[in-house]
Amino acid sequence: MSVNKYVDKYGRYHDKPCLNTESSSNNGWVYTAYAEKLGLEINYPKLATCFSGCKIANKDLGNGIALIRSPNKELPPMSRDEVLGMVALGFLKQHHLNGWNFSPYPIPKFNLFKTISQFLELRGKHRNYLWQNKLEHTYRFAFSVPLSDRHFILQKWGKFNPLYWLVAKVDSMIGNPTNGIPWLKYGGPKREIAMQSEFPEDHPLRKL
User: In the chain, how many domains are there?
Assistant: First the structure.
């Protein structure tokens, strides 16, 4: 791969320059999925090595696997965007998730009172507050793959669910044009607007 200041040592694209090829953002997987969709050069062997390091053993989880964003970097926890990126690039499979949940922490038995109480505590706080303060009863929902993403993911896995297809259909009509996620999932003419809002002028994702 040609040298590119926006590509890290794992072959992932970022929105900011990478100093000494170190990751410069927490969203390298989804940005790399954008790059793949645009036909930019992708180093799949490097990405495969990276993904292997993003799976860590955790016997307390249902499938025994915790997903992290980068090798040897467990914080901040995994996000919906990075799940989409890993799936889009062909690495994340169904068995890497606990059902539709990507929580890197054990999820306690459902307790309605504690769940409501912790969501009320979370109100008005930054999204990192929930894991920084171990609001574990929110994990069941906070780390759940959104319904609007599931049709896209199932497509990548060669599966189909009519309910998720319908949700995606509605979502595709109201998606935010200044965000690359709707374009990644549905395509269409909104790509240029999304890339302009997320990446600097000299970024390769803006040059196509």
Answer: 1
